Prior knowledge:
Elements: H1 6-15, E1 31-32, E2 40-41, E3 48-53, H2 54-58, H3 66-72, E4 76-78, E5 96-98, E6 101-102, E7 109-112, E8 115-117, E9 135-142, H4 146-149, E10 156-162, E11 169-179, E12 183-194, E13 197-208, E14 217-229, E15 234-248, E16 261-276, E17 280-295, E18 308-325, E19 331-350, E20 356-357, E21 368-383, E22 386-397, E23 401-415, E24 418-429, H5 433-437, E25 449-462, E26 465-485, E27 488-509, E28 514-525, E29 533-545, E30 548-563, E31 569-585, E32 588-595, E33 603-605, E34 608-609, E35 614-622
Amino acid sequence: xxxxxxxxxxxxxxxxxxxxxEEPSDSLxxxxxxxxxxxxxxxxxxxTVNVIGRETLTEQYQPSLLPTVAQxxxxxxVTSRGMMGYGVSGGAAGGINLRGISDGTGQLLxxxxxxxxxxxxxxxxxxxxxxxxxxxxxxxxxxxxxVLYGSNAMGGxxxxxxxxxxxxxxxxxxxxxxxxxxxxxTEAGTQMRSGKFSATATAQYNRSDNHRPRMGFEQYGxxxxxxxxxxxxxxxxxxxxxxxxNASHPGSVSSPLxxxxxxxxxxxxxxxxxxxxxxTSGAVSAYTNFGIHKIDDGTSDPSKPTQRYFRSKDNLxxxxxxxxxxxxxxxRVTVGMDYQHIYGRxxxxxxxxxxxxxTPNKQSGKSHRNEIAGYVxxxxxxxxxxxxxxxxxxxxxxxxxxxxxxxxxxxxxxxDNGEIKAMASKGFRNPTMREMYLYPPxxxxxxxxxxxxxxxxxxxxxxNLSYGANIYYIKGDNLIQTLPVDGKPRxxxxxxxxxxxxxxxxxxxxxxxxxxxxxxSYLHMENPLTGAPTYKGYAGGxxxxxxxxxxxxxxxxNGLYTATGASEKKENFWLLNATVKYEVLKGLSLWxxxxxxxxxxxxxxxxxxxxxxxxxxxxNWTF
Length: 623
């Protein structure tokens, strides 16, 4: 057969392939839990929520959740420094920024099934912990969620909803890939359900040399979930996640480091009992997340190695209860209580004999903190086109005292498939152990940071088109900054910030073979922050034809601050990524992924250039 006849035949085959023209799985019209704890149609919530389903999370074969979430959510950005691995401590990437609010000190909260996840001493999430293998979907609530989730949900939350098997049977998946700079990714998982019992078990191993010397990364871990349905109304589950990674920090290009190595273990265990009735639903759960860190800060002179390791242990354990009820027509009231016990210890040990060394902190006897809170959220359909929502939380911290957190919003539905939403909400963050007790700038008299977010949005679905737009204004005060006091650096509550911006997102199912989606965000910051682009735009398309799937996405970043102040520096760049999959046999596929295909030279961290075009390829087998 002549080559020129291949393309017409392939297109003809596509035209006759019997596919269903379904709504995109991650459309704006969907059911969420993050904005209210119980499942609810997002059309009745005043919050702005994005949902990224498992199909989208896995179609690029990314071990980490964060690259996909950053593509799909406007205003959400994550810093990087290599092909794989974010690391911790100095020079670490994986900083999450949403609308100019950073996770660096815990102003953004990561949840796993509604349970807070962060490092107990430094108060921020550990980005290498959040892997695709555990997630059924990810819900991102843009704007404060402190009424439901308390401290650290100041600027928003990313809730990882874990996987579970819904129908009887077995399903197993194995994915193996390799590519540029000695990068390897492997994952194996199985799910089963037999009547009332279900189980999910996954394991992974990933590694990369990355594109710079002394920048290796290695990670392994797994996830296990066991569930049991007692009857139609009551069910329970227990799950655990563990990940360990070894990362090397090369320093910046201008200030290289040697022997800057990190050994980090993070884990999570939770158990819950849930009830689901026609007029009421709720859950009680207990959880813990913990970490063990060992870090060599490295040296600029390899002939003079460091003499100590920095070590830390931390744990955040809690109990959460909520119950939601429909008291009368069009009403939903949710009440809940949360208790958290936060532990953290930081210290140095000698490399020579392993003994604990004097550590410059005031943490002795103050490594434990407790937090207890109660909240209520009231939602009422006033008419068939108007819903009002109001909530309040009272949160008591054993060190900083009591904080009141209100929110209120309305949803107007002028048509069946469109909503106008208005929201005003307060967020807050308690100071971390590091800020209060660790290192010379520490200050035991710090108070919580606070901010208010005001937002107006519009959502509309028209046949196969879904789109949304919103504007917001953020005003924050009492921010913790390090300033000279009596000639010495000291953490104090003096900072203020003012951000405002606009966001747009849309998805369109063209036909049974083609779909496209796009999102855009503009951010103005009165006080610029590193890792927060002024503009972030993404346009992606999917094509399916028989055994072939092609996914491509183009992202443009403008005005990304990598340095502020007198040495201010910004980055502008385009990123083109693409993934191609070919199904050899039913359930057996070959895939290849290319990133930065335009070979852009850019940095998201000052002094840490990203690699040019990179490639991964592998095999995915589902049976």
